[in-house]
Amino acid sequence: MVHEEKTIITTTTNDHNHHHKKPSPYTSNNIHRAIATTIVIILILIAITSLILWLLYNPHKPKFTVVAATAYGNTSPPVTTAMQVTIITRNPNTRVSIHYDRLVTFLSYQNRPVTPPLMLPPLHHARDSTVAVTPTWPVTVDELVGDDVGMVSLKVVLNGSLRYKYGSMWKSRRKNVYVECDVLVGLKKGVLGQVPLVKSSLCRVDI
């Protein structure tokens, strides 16, 4: 009788030898490196695009000039008049238009306002264009002229806010604008009408 011996091989699973497969550290580093590289490329593209837009659309300040002055009113003391000045404002930008959301103006004499503030209507400045505004204020000439003939140094002040418009839709945030114009006019008691501008200068514009 032949006895067949069977060898039973048992495989013991050792929990200590059974490990879950971990991702290669090199794979993780590659992913992080790729993400960082992508972010850097995006930032570089944004910077290049911003530089190109800045070079194309970098807006220049508007220019203001007082070109005329007129005094209206009675000729009996006190000589109460309405003083009107003509201001030429120019937008030198060929790709950017300007929108004035608010613009207040007044006359100043010896560093003090001599007229009430006057709110100008909203002003749109098309690209590469010139606009004239003619504010008029009540003012007493006797306050300005001590003698029969006087050369009076006045200051035209405009203060408000504007926005630049790039293309057909996008507008910049509101920016404060302050304009100061020194003008020298010849005023004479009892003589009203067109008054000579002895000196007019390009106004100072702060934005």
Automatic annotation (TrEMBL):
<feature type="domain" description="Late embryogenesis abundant protein LEA-2 subgroup">
    <location>
        <begin position="90"/>
        <end position="179"/>
    </location>
</feature>
<feature type="transmembrane region" description="Helical">
    <location>
        <begin position="34"/>
        <end position="57"/>
    </location>
</feature>
<keyword id="KW-0812">Transmembrane</keyword>
<keyword id="KW-0472">Membrane</keyword>
<dbReference type="InterPro" id="IPR004864">
    <property type="entry name" value="LEA_2"/>
</dbReference>
<dbReference type="GO" id="GO:0098542">
    <property type="term" value="P:defense response to other organism"/>
</dbReference>
<dbReference type="GO" id="GO:0009506">
    <property type="term" value="C:plasmodesma"/>
</dbReference>
<dbReference type="GO" id="GO:0005886">
    <property type="term" value="C:plasma membrane"/>
</dbReference>
<dbReference type="InterPro" id="IPR044839">
    <property type="entry name" value="NDR1-like"/>
</dbReference>
<dbReference type="Pfam" id="PF03168">
    <property type="entry name" value="LEA_2"/>
</dbReference>
<keyword id="KW-1133">Transmembrane helix</keyword>
<protein>
    <recommendedName>
        <fullName>Late embryogenesis abundant protein LEA-2 subgroup domain-containing protein</fullName>
    </recommendedName>
</protein>
<feature type="region of interest" description="Disordered">
    <location>
        <begin position="1"/>
        <end position="25"/>
    </location>
</feature>
